[in-house]
Amino acid sequence: MNKKIFTERRSVNFFDTSRELDKETFNSIMDLASLTPSSFNLQPWRVIAVHSEKEKERLLPLAWNQPKIKEAPYTLIIIGDKSGFKENAAIWNKLEEGLGKETADKLKGMAEGLYGTSDERMTRFALTNGSLLAMSIMYAAKAFGVDSHTMSGIDYEAIKKEYKLNDSEEVVLLVSLGYHDNSKELYPRGYRKTGSEFIEVI
What we know:
Largest sheet: 4 strands, antiparallel
Number of strands: 4
CATH class of the domain at 12-83 and 130-198: Alpha Beta
């Protein structure tokens, strides 16, 4: 088992502004992260990759002017879709090809029963699956030697409005990707609970 992506992944506060993340590596990271598990394999997410200087300036004030927005080659806006389980979601057509219509129809009913009974359940569906994607992107990035940092200190509603998200879409968080500025030291790794401290076996 390759443990390095877990033991070496850190939240990088300082990105090397002189080092670009090439498009091929970026695409490889995203392709690998596409293997992320999701509810009923519905993949109810999309990503806006902020890369140009113009777009970084646009996002910066919506992320409380955190320097990472300007320093990192890419900052990803992770978006979860609250309606991604609905019967008319386009992904069902793709899934039906492999599952068959009868099985797909049965799963549609199950998904509606699990997530469609309240707005709270729909929101949890979007945020839970979007969070799974975000974490997979960070580990995929580390597999390619690329560093990352998440941001939840952001103006969610302002980002939703600025980027014209659909009513059913929720901003999950931001993920910056790039390379650590080695002239600046990372903070020492903080205390981590061991498994025995947060697991109750019953």
